């Protein structure tokens, strides 16, 4: 047995003689190509070919790309457009937002760190195979999750509350076990406190080896509310921001979207290494503000910044929270005047219900459980219906068995 074979066997616990990968095409360094030869019978070196030729010839197959090697980015972008049914392993410690978005459009993809070994490559391929088999056994399920990100234009805008209520509103429509709420305020998130949830996310372990996260480990880090919404949150830790690397957070959301049809993300207002990739890739980027002049200007600026990360047909949504009920007379200017002032349309308004919100967080329940007829609950339900793609909710509504007619 060669030295590379012994290293591979000790690293993966598998005998290399079986060569578990029959073929793989790779655009990578010489060292990476030699590594692949220890686990694959047929390694195709793509370096002599141009990106367009690679996309045409090897699109739909298993491809490993090392970020930084000339042509790797062009191949990913080409596959996302012309051959989205491919399986791509991207080796990188830091990816630009446009490449992350392209990878999310490819049917099967994974991101490995630069120091990934042969065993890590095999584990990644195993995960891709398992995901493909799951799709084949459940053809009625959608290929990808609906993912929304909520971010506040100013502090205290009620982002966590709206993210929580939106998650429970979707769960009310589609049934339990299909909605996951991810709290990315890793240093001082409030989701677990508001719902009396158990913060199970081991951020240190995730950051140390993002590629090890799979469905089984994700399930161990999830806590499910009695109403059926799963939450992922980390214990409060003032040093947690340093642990939340881009690779770790993107891997977390990638696996969550593979396991849940609906994933909602409570984002911090301050900029993190992964903020732009997430806001550029999610189905809906939702900015939360209040109807005050400083908040409106902050929201308009943030919305313009996020729009630069997204395509013209995927504009950022602007939501005003804590609006006074119309029957009350308060010193508050009209929404149409606010839109004129910031030169941007406001997509939704959420009525304030402070008493119901306070009672809900004290009981660890969503507001819909405490006061189901609240105007806030109705506004959230309308927002969910408006933002959800056509037919998605109906596809996930559980089918009730037909009742037998009385004889």
UniProtKB/TrEMBL annotation:
A biological process (GO) of this protein is:
negative regulation of cell division
Q: Which Gene3D superfamilies match?
A: P-loop containing nucleotide triphosphate hydrolases
Q: Name one GO molecular function term.
A: ATP binding
Q: Which GO terms describe its cellular component?
A: cytoplasmic side of plasma membrane; cytosol
Q: Which domain of life is it from?
A: Bacteria
Q: Which InterPro entries match?
A: P-loop_NTPase, ParA/MinD_ATPase
Q: What name does UniProt use for this protein?
A: AAA domain-containing protein
């Amino acid at each position: 047995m060669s030295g590379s074979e012994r290293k591979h066997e000790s690293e993966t616990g598998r005998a290399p003689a079986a060569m578990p990968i029959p073929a793989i095409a790779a655009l990578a360094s010489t060292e990476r190509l030699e590594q692949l030869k220890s686990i694959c019978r047929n390694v195709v070196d793509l370096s002599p070919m141009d990106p367009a030729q690679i996309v045409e010839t090897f699109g739909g197959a298993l491809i490993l790309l090392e970020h930084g090697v000339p042509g790797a980015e062009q191949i990913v972008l080409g596959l996302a457009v012309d051959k989205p049914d491919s399986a791509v392993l991207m080796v990188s410690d830091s990816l630009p937002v446009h490449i992350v978005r392209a990878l999310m459009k490819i049917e099967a993809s994974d991101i490995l760190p630069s120091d990934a070994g042969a065993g890590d490559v095999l584990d990644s391929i195993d995960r891709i195979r398992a995901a493909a088999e799951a799709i084949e056994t459940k053809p009625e399920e959608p290929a990808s999750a609906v993912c929304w990100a909520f971010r506040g234009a100013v502090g205290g805008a009620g982002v966590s509350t709206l993210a929580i209520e939106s998650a429970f509103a979707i769960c009310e429509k589609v049934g339990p076990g299909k909605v996951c709420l991810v709290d990315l305020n890793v240093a001082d998130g409030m989701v677990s406190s508001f719902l009396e949830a158990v913060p199970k996310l081991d951020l240190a372990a995730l950051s140390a080896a993002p590629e090890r996260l799979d469905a089984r480990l994700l399930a161990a880090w999830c806590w499910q509310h009695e109403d059926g919404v799963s939450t992922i949150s980390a214990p409060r830790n003032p040093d947690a921001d340093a642990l939340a690397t881009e690779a770790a957070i993107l891997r977390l959301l990638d696996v969550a979207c593979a396991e849940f049809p609906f994933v909602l993300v409570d984002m911090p207002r301050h900029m993190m290494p992964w903020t732009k990739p997430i806001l550029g890739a999610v189905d809906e980027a939702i900015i939360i503000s209040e109807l005050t002049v400083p908040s409106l200007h902050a929201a308009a600026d943030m919305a313009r910044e996020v729009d630069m990360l997204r395509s013209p047909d995927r504009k950022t949504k602007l939501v005003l929270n804590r609006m006074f009920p119309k029957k009350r007379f308060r010193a508050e200017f009209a929404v149409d005047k606010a839109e004129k002032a910031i030169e941007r349309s406001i997509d939704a308004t959420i009525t304030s219900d402070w008493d119901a919100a306070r009672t809900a967080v004290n009981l660890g329940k969503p507001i819909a459980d405490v006061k189901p007829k609240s105007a806030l609950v109705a506004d959230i339900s309308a927002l969910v219906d408006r933002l959800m793609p056509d037919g998605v909710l109906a596809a996930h509504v559980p089918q009730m068995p037909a009742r037998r007619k009385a004889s």
